Hints:
By secondary structure, the chain is an alpha+beta fold. The protein folds into two domains: 1-99, no CATH class; 101-213, Bactericidal permeability-increasing protein, domain 2, CATH 3.15.20. 17% of the residues lie in helices and 37% in strands. It contains four helices and 13 strands. The radius of gyration is 24 Å and the shape is elongated. The termini are far apart.
Amino acid sequence: KIISVIFVIEYFTLSTTLTVPMPIDDLAEVDYSLSSLPAVFQPFIDLDFKGTVYAAGNYTGPPYVAAPFTIPDQSNSMLYLAFSEYFFQTSSFAYYTTGAFNITITEEVSRKQRNGTCSYFNISTEIFNSIIPEVAKYSVTPYPVMLKLMATEIPIISLEQDSFTAEIQGSMEVFAVLPDSTTQSLFTMNIAANTSIALNIFDQKLMGSLCLNR
């Protein structure tokens, strides 16, 4: 018994000094090593994990400091999980550095199967002619449109009651796709958005519902 106790203590001590990465997807990994020895009480045990998200294969420390927090006392469930702002901030930083927020939308990549039918991203330059007259000078003939979306700053994550908000700064560049498959840049617009995201678990996957505040 003494040997097993010593082994357990040494294991926990070792796990607090090592990075223990687990892949989230092809772009990011989470370090779930213990940040301190477990706190054992008569009715429960507290396990504090680091919860730092890194770009896959890059364990450079993110520009955030983890603030301590506590879980409210409850006893009607067997297991409680709590995630801090730090977890979401490092997630945002990791995905930003990998370019995950840079998206190109064309007719070819936006086809989706929905109830046996296909929906298409099918916008042409003609739709912009009345809104932005300058576009008509470059595109007398209607051409398909390609959109390039890019985050220009790290999205800012803030926890709120029952959800969290994300402040997103980005830009969108609109291209005309010419008959020879080359593109002509039409215009670029800056975007600032404030969104609320509520998290739920469906089919063992963490999913988010998005609401645009402004």
